[in-house]
Amino acid sequence: MINPRDLHICRDAIRQGSLSFYAASKLLPAKVRDPALALYAFCRLADDAVDLHDEKISAVLRLRDRLDAIYEGRPNDAAADRAFAAVVEMHEMPKALPDALLEGLAWDAQERRYRSLSGVIDYSARVAAAVGAMMSVLMGVRDADALARACDLGVAMQLTNIARDVGEDARAGRIYLPLDWLDAEHIAPEAFLADPVPDDRIRRLVQRLLREADRLYARSEAGIAALPLSVRPGIFAARHVYAGIGAAIAKNGHDTISYRARTYKSQKIGWLALATLRSGVTTVMPRSAVLHAQPLPECAFLVSAAARPVARGSAWGDGRSGALLSILADLEARDQSRKLDRLGA
Q1: What confidence tens digit (pLDDT) does each residue in 297-329 have?
Q2: Which family does the entry's similarity section mention (predicted)?
Q3: Could you tell me what percent of the chain has a pLDDT over 90?
């Protein structure tokens, strides 16, 4: 069981750092809501630890060590770590799923850019769809089709986040828009980062990214209808609340450099009501054939990992992938080199 004091701290972290998910979580039953808050708190704080600190490499390596400690049954003395360790134990969470998040954050530390939309989706699979897959596991859903649609929803949410944060990311020296899209609009990445301007070209790219997100939001709905009835309102709510951010971006003319799109409490209340209504409708409607669509190629590894139960007391999966181990070794070498440079200075 999650310690109530740890859960309270996790709940506060989500209330302050992710209002959209916090609002949607209110429609989940307590047996799902509590581990979901613990999961989101750990993932959110892990993301912040890398995103908001200058020493991103060290932050990723610390996260690696924290995950290892959690899966060894000796979590760090921190509420989010203890709570996530309880979730891992209760739900036999495959280690490949939080490892995917770790890999995405490692890509951030490497300051990767993505040549194509597929590359952006590769990144989104790790930092967002992996969380969707973990949510499915803690809901007791390991059906491959439902997992594929959960990954669709996670990627859609991340594409929305990228569209919303174009200006904020540019001012921090980051760019997540596909580089081939920039090339097609004759936008030089370095020039854009030096002077981010919301001209028609960049607005078109934001609009284009949101169209991709909307396509995946629509695909995800078939998976929501396949979930247990008790959790459908909360997941429908998350779908509508995040899609509402895209609508707010459109209202601002797809300018996410001058403005940060926001949604309001009254809107969230409306989306929560809509989610409850739609959940009831899905009980009498035939299931959509879209449920059985193949997973996004970039998310197939997540579906495979989550669909395969891991025996309690095992190694929690097949170990870290060679790609992730290579990235971590690269970051370790960079970290050691930086420390030696400081000693020499």
Answers
A1: 999 999 999 997 665 544 455 578 889 999 999
A2: Belongs to the phytoene/squalene synthase family.
A3: 74
CATH of the domain at 182: 1.10.600.10
Asked if residue 336 belongs to a domain, the reply is yes
SS3 content of the chain, % helix, strand, coil (to 5): 70, 0, 30
Closest CA to 227 of 304, 123, 153, 313: 153
Tell me if 222 is assigned to some domain.
Answer: yes
Residue 162 lies in a domain: yes
Which pLDDT tens digit goes with each residue over 232-289? 999 999 999 999 999 999 999 999 999 999 888 888 889 888 888 888 766 555 578 8
User: How many domains does one find in the chain?
Assistant: 1
The pair of three-digit structure tokens given for residue 140, joined into one six-digit string:
């007791």
Contact by Cβ (8 Å): 106, 46: no
Angle at 46 between CA 42 and CA 52, to 5 degrees: 140
237 neighbors 275 (Cβ within 8 angstroms):
yes
